[in-house]
Amino acid sequence: MCPLRINGSPNGNVKTLGSAGTIFEAEDPDILLRIMERPRAINVSFEERPSNELLSNHFECLSPHGRRSGFNSPRSYTSFEAHAMVGEAWENMKRSIVYYRRQPVGTVAAMDHSVEELNYDQVFVRDFVPSALAFLMNGEEEVVKNFLLKTLHLQSWEKMIDQFKLGEGVMPASFKVIHNPERNREILIADFGESAIGRVAPVDSGFWWIILLRAYTRHTGDSSLAEMPECQRGMRLILTLCLSEAFDTFPTLLCADGCCMIDRRMGVYGYPIEIQALFFMALRCALLLLKQDQEGKEFIERIVKRLHALSFHMRNYFWLDLKQLNDIYRYKTEEYSHTAVNKFNVMPDSLPDWVFDFMPTRGGYFIGNVSPARMDFRWFCLGNCVAILSSLATPEQASAIMDLIESRWDELVGEMPLKICYPALESHEWRIVTGCDPKNTRWSYHNGGSWPVLLWLLTAACIKTGRPQIARRAIELAENRLSKDHWPEYYDGKTGRYIGKQARKFQTWSISGYLVAKMMLEDPSHLGMISLEEDKQMKPLMKRSTSWTC
User: Fold this and answer.
1) Which of 1, 92, 280, 382 is the most exposed place for a label (fewest CB within 10 A)?
2) pLDDT tens-digit profile of 454-463?
């Protein structure tokens, strides 16, 4: 993920044609990018009403093409003491913007000039989400709209890995703008997994796209984008992939390792919490965005059924607190019949020693994975925060997750927020699970590393659960070092003390994650973009223990 380069083109991120990937070229680049003349306000439930705009001065500037833009400076931060890092962060955000045929379409993953680019010069779908939220909060909707439409174009392209054709609904993991010298024009190259480590398709990209479309619609009050036939079809294609019938006995999605933010071998194959939480949230967002036409109604019916089954499954079988941990410790095995208590035939001796000390008296969390004879008891931050924001977690469970974070602050936050997972894999377990991955050594990168980007998810979860003081404490920790350390991708060490050994500097989502956290804490109404209230109809009778009864 590389620095921007000025190449005599208005796009500071233009590359020469030469790298492998799926080439996409729009013959008419404006066909889906034309501006809708009369945005229509959404008039549905309370949570779908557009949030209030920030009331503050806007220092306007001109984009490289003479259009009015706010990329140079924020609109907000007039009602509280702005930290010196805020202005610096916005300047970095401005420099990270990628242009395609004179239109802003995203942000590069990183702007580190000191190391080889690899794929850090690309626009990643998951990486752009916090950038998109920051731009929306700052009143800059154009780049978000263009990103949504451009990735939608890429979804329609034929996707081949060797001799195998991927599903039509797969969204790209990333794309980049390159300059074709033969045609003397810019084109896009997209990666659908054919260039990724392990050649794994990004399961999360489609979910993030739907979530971001709903955030854009919610914030702007403009439903015209989501109602476009192309967007409706794009959503249906994504939903077709994840709602298709197969041999599954569970409502959760079966996934390969490395299919999400943890994009390397880390033992998250099966039914990882990150994918299940994003799946749940994307289904709920799609329910709000799909039109009530014949095709839309068919999908809505399927979504409602899946949501009921998924919420019951996750809230019962993925949830862990002190009482449930004790129950698993006392499980009998080899139970047969529908009356079995140990439904997945989990062996009590497989319980890791660390989990008994990690579990507080009050508190709980959704564990990393549940499948036949296997429970991954690791804590994964993104999955638990999204579970709160999507209301996959009940209000009581959401409160218990916050209790756990407060009780285990040193382990999960330490000196730099926030642990991507806990604990780290070590020794023999690391060798078996990661395949001796030199980048995922203990307390580094995905293996217990500390990722500043997760700050925005923590802040959103804190605001939703009425615990803003937790977010404020975490933001203050980040402000002690992030700017001084040049905005690293991640930190290493048990407490996150050290800049990651292979961490890129000026990582865009570390920058945007900080900005989103700051703006959301200042104006909590922004939470509406990324939060969904509990659907009472999906609340099942809880048959398992929950920590708040302790």
Assistant:
1) 92
2) 999 999 999 9
Q: CA-to-CA distance for 332 and 326, rounded, in angstroms?
A: 12
Q: Which of 59, 76, 60 is nearest to 524 (CA)?
A: 76
Span of 159-163, 185-189, 417-421, 471-475 with lowest mean pLDDT = 159-163
Question: Which residue intervals of 185-228 are DSSP H helices?
Answer: 203-220, 224-227
> How far is the CA of 475 from the CAs of 262, 343, 442, 521, in angstroms?
23, 41, 25, 10
Cα–Cα distance, 491 to 416 (Å, whole number) = 7
Neighbouring residues of 233: CB distance < 8 A, sequence distance ≥ 6? none
Q: Which two tokens stand for residue 480?
A: 């002690």
Distance between CA atoms of 355 and 364, rounded to whole angstroms?
Answer: 11
Which token pair is 315? 């809230």
Mean pLDDT of all residues in the chain? 86
Look up residue 547 and give its two tokens. 């920590």
CA atoms within 13 A on the CB side of 341: 12
| Dihedral, 77, 82, 86, 88 alpha carbons, nearest 10 | 120
Radius of gyration of the chain (CA): 22
Give the containing element (helix H, strand E) for 249. Answer: none
Cα 393 to Cα 386: distance, rounded to the nearest angstrom: 9
Of the candidates 189, 369, 359, the residue with the CA atom closest to the CA atom of residue 266 = 369
Judging by DSSP bridges, how do beta strands 421-422 and 379-380 pair with one another? antiparallel
Contacts of 407 (CB under 8 A, 6+ apart): 360, 362, 363
Residue with tokens 């749940």, as numbered in its chain: 280
For each of the domains in the chain, give its residue range(s) and CATH number, in order of start.
80-529 (1.50.10.10)
**b/e map 498-527, b = 16+ CB within 10 Å:** bbbeebbbbbbbbbbbbbbbbbbbbbbebb
